[in-house]
Amino acid sequence: MSVKEIVVLPGDGIGPEVTKEALNILETVCKRHGHQLKTKSYAFGGASIDQFGRPLTQETIDACKDASAVLLGAVGGEQWNNEPKDKRPEAALLGIRKELDLYANLRPIKTYDSLIHASPLKPEIVSGVDIMIVRELTGGIYFGRPRLIEKTETGERGVDTKVYTTEEIERVTHTAFETAAKRNRRVTSVDKSNVLDASRLWRQVVIESASQWPEIELNHMLVDNCAMQLVRDPSQFDVILTGNMFGDILSDEASMITGSIGMLPSASIGKEYAMYEPVHGSAPDIAGQNKANPLATIASVALMCRHSLDMPDAAQEIEEAIETTLQDGFRTGDIASGDPDEYLVSTTEMGSAVLKHLNPDLQPGTFL
Ligand SMILES: NC(=O)C1=CN([C@@H]2O[C@H](COP(=O)(O)OP(=O)(O)OC[C@H]3O[C@@H](n4cnc5c(N)ncnc54)[C@H](O)[C@@H]3O)[C@@H](O)[C@H]2O)C=CC1
Ligand SMILES: CC(C)CC(=O)C(=O)O
Ligand SMILES: [Mg+2]
User: Fold this and answer.
1) Is the reported ipTM for this assembly greater than 0.90?
2) Is 74 in the pocket of ligand 2 (CB under 6 A)?
3) What is this structure's pTM?
4) Is 217 annotated as a binding residue?
5) Pocket test for ligand 1, best of 261, 297, 298 (most atoms within 8 A of CB)
């Protein structure tokens, strides 16, 4: 038996609601596979501002570095929007990614057959889609300096800076190609090299690095075209490799191929540490109402089992349990299509429905 020590950063809004469901699942699979799960939660983002006056504390950073893996919910909310930029909840998220050097964010976009009608796109467009977005996570315009708003003679001027170095591009390219080698061996690198110098360097370094993987097909696409192609013909993509902001935007867009942003998990990986986080934010519009879809966070725990906890069987079991739960017809509001065979369920009910497939001791219908 081994002990799996997990740090949990529930964060704000729906963050605590979805992490709670995911932890129930993690605890169950750990037990099932003879491991002991130890978790410790830390206030993070807005919750940390309220408790400690800052979004991310040194104690939290140290705890994350000592853990086998980190599970994050989401941060942010209207009440903290007027804080100075380094005191906003989002600064905790950018801060922990940087502190742990989590430079590659893997965002799988895979359609479930039973959710084909939940997507606003036509069934023949979304059927069979299986994309992995590899997003650079610790560089680019979210981190570049200078970054400021300053007075001018006529008003004000806001500045952000997009910076990428050779090393930053090389290491995330490595992740993308290694990922593609285990999939369908195609990488589409997405940039804006017709306008931006940082993107011109991006393309050049990707081309140079690609020579290490002659068996992998590489093509390049400008980001505006990619946004369009994701809706026109998403099946053309295998691995999409892109920078921080482009990856952020394209993955929210791509989530609708699956039916909802509430379905997309992610793994943020570095050389030493890893953090698992749903792609969505704190969803203040549904927070505290037991309405959020917990499947993105539950699927993130599956990624954690595979990549950090050496529990690949558990990962597969969780993924199969999600699939079966959807086949059974359970739907939170975001993925409901109004079909009479569906059961509209809450966050906790969805979590229990998945759990039921992993824990034979639970009676069918326990939560209903
Ligand atoms: N990783 C993180 O912590 C992120 C934090 N944010 C923060 O979250 C706050 C809200 O941002 P938004 O732009 O509204 O993005 P959001 O992703 O929180 O919500 C966008 C829309 O999707 C819905 N949604 C999101 N997750 C859902 C789920 N699990 N189940 C069902 N519906 C779901 C929401 O109800 C909302 O209508 C902001 O403060 C933002 O900065 C935004 C994105 C990522
Ligand atoms: C603070 C933002 C960069 C969070 C976000 O939208 C994301 O990482 O997807
Ligand atoms: Mg985002």
Assistant:
1) yes
2) no
3) 0.97
4) no
5) 261
